[in-house]
Design brief:
By secondary structure, the protein is mostly beta strands. It is built from no helices and ten strands. Strands 2-1-5-6 form a four-stranded antiparallel β-sheet, with no helix packed on it. The protein has a four-stranded antiparallel β-sheet with strand order 3-10-7-4, with no helix packed on it.
């Protein structure tokens, strides 16, 4: 059984027991979160597609880690003009463990 969920503007295919890293969600480490935006659920041979979401479906998850991702470097340069800018960025992330798929 698997489900396709959407969070943070991205879609993830999840199964029970999976750990996924998504954009920051509110919640302390160890707290339970219910993800309501379920786009598709497959149980056995039965595939249920949402229009756009599957009604009465949700995914229960537990917050494993609140942290930040790797640093990326944004570097801009215009040749022969003496212009260059360097900027770094670290995105806040939440690691979730999928407990149960409802629906």
């Amino acid at each position: 059984m698997y489900a396709v969920i959407e969070t943070g503007g991205k879609q993830y295919r999840v199964q029970e027991g999976d750990q996924i890293t998504v954009e920051k969600l509110l919640g302390d480490v160890g707290s339970k979160i219910q993800l309501e935006t379920v786009l598709c659920v497959k149980k056995g041979e039965q595939l249920v597609l949402g229009k756009p979401q599957v009604e009465n479906a949700s995914v229960d998850a537990e917050v494993v880690l609140q942290g930040r991702g790797e640093k990326i470097v944004v570097f801009k340069k215009k040749r022969r003009k003496g212009y260059s800018r360097k900027q770094g960025h670290r995105q806040s992330e939440t690691t979730l463990k999928i407990i149960k798929i409802n629906g």
